[in-house]
Task: structure prediction
Amino acid sequence: MESWLQQYWIELAGTIFAIIYLSLSIRENIWLWPVGFLTSFFYLIVFFQSRLYADMGLQFYYLVVSVYGWFHWMGQRKNGVLVKTDLPTVSIVKMQWIVYLLAIGILIIFIYIALIFLPGMLDLPPSDLPLGDAFTTAASIVATWMLARKFLENWLIWIVVNAFSLGMYAYKGLYITVFLFVIYTAMSVVGYYRWKRHMLHNATVNV
Result:
């Protein structure tokens, strides 16, 4: 057991923080952002060791968005004074869906090309599963931005990304992370309906 912990403690720590992060996300709790920062730090190391370079690079993006999400969810400044607000959940319209799906498609192309050529240029081993890695990374970039903006539909993208990712991580033998993403997929469904119920309740109260 001790030798197993020594080998997998980074992945295990990332998994524990990730579960806490997801729980806080579903509850719309602002502390999800610092916990997400720690999750990204540990998984940056895990994905580098597993040669999933796009997922590794995604963790740098998560670190930045965690800082943005913290301040955006906290509130806004008026006359230099921070006004704390309960940031409302909103639903995107059809045109926004088109924009976000187009963004995912463009990001997939650029990330896939980078995964094919950059490892050799940087004298690194070739990326495993470059197309799958590109898809999950591109969709996660968009979904995380939508989460930071508190758009309800971020959960719909996460359902697809998490379900696809658990298969990819099973192939790579990251079984602790597979367990995590089984939970992520199920809880993303819970998150969608919980946010939607909260959003509709607030809309009724504010009428």
Observations:
- The first strand starts at residue 75 and ends at 78.
- Confidence is low (pLDDT under 50) at residues 77-83.
- The radius of gyration is 18 Å.
